[in-house]
Amino acid sequence: MERTIIKDIFSHPELIGREIEVKGWTRTRRGNKYVQFIALNDGSTIRNIQVVLDMTRFTEEQLKPVTTGASLRVRGKLVESMGKGQTCEIQAEDIEIYGTADPDAYPLQKKGHTLEYLREKAHLRPRTNTFGAVLRVRSTLAFAIHKFFNERGFIYLHTPLITASDCEGAGAMFQVTTLDMNNLPKGEDGRVDYSGDFFGKPTALTVSGQLEGELGATALGAIYTFGPTFRAENSNTPRHLSEFWMIEPEVSFLDINGNMDLAEDFVKYCIGYALENSREDIEWLAEMYDKDLVSRLEFVLNNDFVRLTYTEGVKILEESGHKFDFPIYWGADLQSEHERYLVEQHFKKPVILTGYPKEIKAFYMKQNEDGRTVRAMDVLFPKIGEIIGGSEREENLDKLQQRIDELGIPMKDMWWYLDTRRFGTVPHSGFGLGFERLVLFVTGMTNIRDVIPFPRTPGNAEF
Ligand code: ATP
Ligand code: MN
User: Fold this and answer.
1) pTM of the entire predicted model
2) CB 338, CB 351: distance < 8 Å
């Protein structure tokens, strides 16, 4: 007999009255000596299927190993259910136990566990309702991202994870080497000699695929990347991971305004797709963790993002009279508290800030005529702060070179990047969306460690 996926049971009423087979993990077993009930989940949906056991056909001895976590195969007739909260249930005829889960040892018992506890059991937490829901939503969002770009003719470009450029500038990097750390070859100057290293020079894990993304965009027109990025910053916040996934579209012949439109359309599309295709999981998460979740998602979908300049934003913050932990003045890098004040207190809408001081932004951003600001854009979201960072890129070789010199950026290995400006340069723009920040927003979770299956953070690379 072919196995039926539990999710399909609930969407195929014609299965009622038929013999079916399901496989999954026991969530609970309860009952008495006449009738018992097993709630079985196979990970395909937040919903469990109820298995009803007529105890004239089964013995207590036989069911004893069916405790929370035990894996089973169940055959029986699918019937309409009398019990409240479920549409159908299986009248068990035959049960096979694949694996038991000793109640004294299995870490996930019936009682709800805290998210902190579950982080220490990250190898098993996908079996909980919460992480099942989060990981399904995450998967739906990943699919939505590919769908969005594919429908618009973007080319999915795979940029390298190992890079030799140490000027990406987005954050501290993890070194990649095959040298023997206990016996490092040294040059005459006493410094490590990398000529014998795997790549013959120092390399690191990428902090962003943007620079190579620009190579793709200035050939293919519009590209996007969607892959892991690594940042070796010691930031222990609920919004930073050491390994996270980033989506980076890069588009030729697009200016900063088109870039803002793209960013807004993109996040709205993803949120809308998740609401449509992961509704049950989102509603379950809302019920458990965040009653306003669905209305917040719908609000973002149905409202234009507010667009204003950094200068205007700083003025609002200065005049707010609000006491911030970090001082606010023109030239300051905005902290999460500033971003959230603008979004949550002042505008009560997502905000796109543009025209940042060039000193606090990367070298490749297009310089404005005022000589002080660049065509950067950050998209700021309620509860999250920055969800997207992007810009129009400086396409003029002389201006770009001048900025590189001013900042003293080591460009010796970057000749290839400057070739985009040397040969057939074009106006172009792009941005980076931190995938986990989007998943945070859509699931209503509050700690980024809870929206990636196996988080990497300073001091933590277990599992
Ligand atoms: P932040 O100011 O929040 O540290 P950033 O300005 O360093 O972010 P960018 O270099 O602009 O970030 O990266 C683009 C996007 O990647 C950000 O808008 C954010 O959504 C996401 N992001 C950046 N750093 C992290 C991180 N450590 N963990 C998870 N997501 C991140
Ligand atoms: Mn940024």
Assistant:
1) 0.96
2) no
Predicted local confidence at residue 187, as pLDDT: 94
Distance of CA 235 from the midpoint of ligand 1 (Å): 11
pLDDT (tens digit per residue) in 200-259: 999 999 999 999 999 999 999 999 999 999 999 888 899 999 999 999 999 999 999 999
| Percent share of the chain, pLDDT over 90 | 93
Q: How far apart are CA 387 and CA 438, in angstroms?
A: 7
* CA 253 to mean position of chain CA atoms: 28
CA dist list (Å): 180 to 161, 183, 184, 194: 22, 5, 6, 11
The residue type at 455: P
Q: What is the DSSP letter of 457?
A: B
pLDDT at 169 over 70: no
Pocket flag, ligand 1, residue 361 (CB < 6 Å): no
What is the rounded CA–CA span in Å between residue 335 and residue 338? Answer: 5
Contact 126, 136 (CB under 8 A): no
Cβ of 438 below 6 Å from ligand 1: no
- CA angle, 300 then 304 then 306, to 5°: 105
Q: Output the pLDDT for position 288.
A: 96
- Do residues 72 and 66 lie in contact, with contact meaning Cβ atoms separated by under 8 Å? yes
The residues facing 431 across adjacent strands are: 390
Convert the pLDDT of each residue in 27-71 to its tens digit: 999 999 999 999 999 999 999 999 999 999 999 999 999 999 999
Residue 83 has pLDDT above 80, yes or no: no
Q: Report how far ligand 1's centroid is from the alpha carbon of 435 (Å).
A: 10
DSSP state of 201: S
Question: What is the C-alpha radius of gyration for the chain, rounded to an integer number of angstroms?
Answer: 27
Of 239, 241, 310, 364, best ligand 1 pocket probe by most atoms within 8 Å of the beta carbon? 239
Q: Could you identify the atom of ligand 1 that is nearest to the CA of residue 378?
A: 18
DSSP state of 424: S
Ligand 1 neighbour 387 (Cβ under 6 A)? yes
In sequence order, what are the residues at sequence separation of 6 or more whose Cβ sits closer than 8 angstroms to the Cβ of residue 152?
A: 222
Region class of 97: left (phi > 0), else alpha (psi between -120 and 50), else beta = beta
Query: Which pair of tokens denotes residue 119?
Result: 């982080």
Among residues 181, 239, 243, the alpha carbon closest in space to that of 384 is found at 239
